[in-house]
Amino acid sequence: MTAVSSGLALTLSAGSASAQIPTWPRAGGEGAIVELRGRVVCLGEGAVPGPCAAASDRFALETPGGRRYRFRPGDPLTGMLADDRLRERELFVRARQAPSDELETIKLYSVHNGRLHDLDYFCEVCNVVAYAPGLCPCCRRPMVLRETPLP
């Protein structure tokens, strides 16, 4: 068991742990990193904004200028957008933009009084952090949305 622990410490200290994190395929290469502000809308048939369905995973960011950027289906961080409270807020999105203009989310922030706030869901009982609403995987209590102001 000591050899395994030592090997893990060496792997992490060498910085190769990130190579073990699974990534999903990107459309058309890497794409440019973009930072956008706006509000999230749910997309219905034909990528037209519509009411949010309970199991919807089709979202777009609509900028103040009216331009709409779709989030890639299956983007792991768009699970947060299922939360009605986040769709009511102005958001700041850092994402990789594919040639198709679809966004692959890197980080989501809420904007309050011009300040960015980090977003996550937290279980105080188990000290578990998640990036989608739902029940704590440990104690099965509801996770609480946290918005932490950035320094």
Q: What does this molecule look like?
A:
Strands 1, 2, 3, 4, 5, 6, 7 and 8 form an 8-stranded antiparallel sheet that branches. The protein has helices spanning 2-13, 84-87, and strands spanning 32-42, 59-62, 68-70, 91-97, 103-112, 115-123, 128-130, 144-149. With 151 residues, the chain is mainly β. A hairpin with a 4-residue loop joins strand 6 and strand 7 (128-130). Helix content is 11%, strand content 35%. The chain has one domain.
Report the uncertain regions: 1-28
Measured between the Cα atoms of the first and last residue, the distance is 41 Å
Question: Largest sheet, if any?
Answer: 8 strands, antiparallel
Shape: globular
Q: What is the count of structural domains?
A: 1
Q: What is the typical, i.e. mean, pLDDT?
A: 79
The structure class reads mainly beta
Total strands: the figure is 8
The secondary-structure element order is: HEEEHEEEEE
How big a fraction of the residues is strand? 35-45%
The percent range for helix content is 10-25%
Tell me the Rg in angstroms: 18 Å
Query: What is the number of helical segments per DSSP (H or I, 4+ residues)?
Result: 2
Secondary structure: elements and pairs:
Layout: H1 2-13, E1 32-42, E2 59-62, E3 68-70, H2 84-87, E4 91-97, E5 103-112, E6 115-123, E7 128-130, E8 144-149
Antiparallel strand pairs: 1-2, 1-4, 2-3, 4-5, 5-6, 6-7, 6-8
Characteristic terms for this protein:
globular; 151 residues; 8-stranded antiparallel sheet; mainly beta
Q: What would you say about this model in short?
A:
This protein is mainly beta and 151 residues long.
